[in-house]
Amino acid sequence: MTSPYSPGLQVDLTVPGRARVELDAEPGAVIAVIGPNGAGKSSFVRALAGLVAADGTALLDGTDLLTLSARDREVGLVFQGQLLFPHLSALDNVAFGPRSRGRSRRDADRTAQDLLDTFGIGHLAGRRPRELSGGQAQRVAIARALATEPRLLLLDEPFTGLDVTAAMALRIELAQHLASFDGVTVLVTHEAIDALTLADQVLVLDRGRVAQHGTPQHVAARPATDHVARLVGVNLVRETDATGVEALTTFSPRDVTVSLRRPEGSARLQWQGSVASAQQHGDAVRLLVDCEPPLLADVTPQAAAELGLAPGRDVWLSVKATAVRRYGSADEDQRGDR
Amino acid sequence: MSPRTQSQRSHRTDPLGRPPLLLLVPAVLAVALLVVPLLAMLAAIDWRTLPTSLSSAPLRTALWLSLSTSTAAMLVCLVLGLPVAWLLARVDFRGRSLVRVLVTVPMVLPPVVAGVALRTAFGRTGLVGEPLLAATGFAFPFTAWGVVLAHTFVSMPFVVLAIEGALRSADPDYDAAAATLGATRWTTFRRVTIPLALPGIVAGMVLGWARSLGEFGATITFNGNYPGTTQTMPTLIYVTRQSDQDAALALSLVMLVVSVAVLLLLRDRWLGTP
Question: Cβ contact (<8 Å) for B180 and A86?
Fold first, then answer.
């Protein structure tokens, strides 16, 4: 296949039985890939890295990655769980890539030391992975992936397993590094905050398919999957009209009114069910109500006490028409900000 | 160990309850079965004649031959067996299970049968032996190389299986990580797989070495029993025992000491478990 040279990443690939993904990204772009377990996120990333077989094309700066072996791709992969070589020091881990690609030992070591310095862990160069904290080890893993000067950086759940403080610090640091990285970054994550703070495109995978694709703001405001709705903490209701067209309605748990009797108003925005759980959420009490579909509702602690909102309590939920956003489920791939 | 930790240990009770007698009794019997013969042997040794027995020339010759041929066999097993183990552990090829079975067969084969098989292959009129003799004038049987060959034949299965296990327990995702960093498979093998599996590889080699050191059946069937060229410690012990019980015990003691010494040495250094 001949294609006019175009920088960035143009993907249309299928990992048989696992995932089918289309994606178009410009150099410097950061794409967050989100979706539930088993949605095909890791398969997609491993296919780009050349670790699982895939059909189709994945053009990186005009070269089809899928025709190259893993070692010949200009791709850096940060594995879930880091996979730092346990018998090598931090420096040797980072220098491994440049050395494998034929650079001299001195040269590779200098590159590695520079990268470790950039990540603020230059003084830990001599340590083995087991002597590093989770956050430090993750920095070494990212430095190792960047040491080969990849055109495509793949990060597979880089914050998983870190404590909250370490994850937040690394997030801020990573944002700075990604801002100066002129290749394409694909970031697999299960945290809404990563998609919202680090990415300029979000790719939502569900059961091996792209369920939604757009800017983080767009995806957060108009989630197409239950998974994303849960991640950003909003309610999502699906309705299919007589012609079979599906419409989605989303609204915040804050805008839900909880009452013990059937409320006035549009029946379309009312649900009856029993409280499944009640948990402190910020300064409110967040209820999960077992209706069709299950919905979240935030109430004040006083209201929760007055209405006796304990698990098992039957309640009515309603929301004002002005507080909901309605859109079609085919409403995707709208990447422009609005 | 300090007295304090000792007393802590003795006061500790297993929260799951005492081990059942039905398991405890057979376990004690098993250990006794393994230890009693060795103790009996130590008790039967005549310590007054021991120095004379130990300084005999046949012992020194046989011990040296045993140590050197076992070490040589271990190295052959490493050079040939490690690649087989790697292929079995890391490459998905057709007939992998069959190869594993074929490699394992000598492990369950009676050593005497192994000796007969080696004869028919590498004897002077054997399938491989005859052309080899014609081409080079060299034949394996009745030489120290024949001993190494017999040792290798019986030890290789142990070495391959042990090393394959070690390679399998080294996470193949590290190989994947190395590949994404641009490493060839050879570089990955050398710089990642081997270092990660090293303790297991060394354990496999020790196992092979110990197996060679005790090899008797295949060696004597293939090579006979010639002092200086093919008479190893086990064959010497066997021959000596027919004439001089005390000398046979002394020789056995040497083997026991050598085996235990190697085991302890490597256990501390490599095998890690207390």
Answer: no
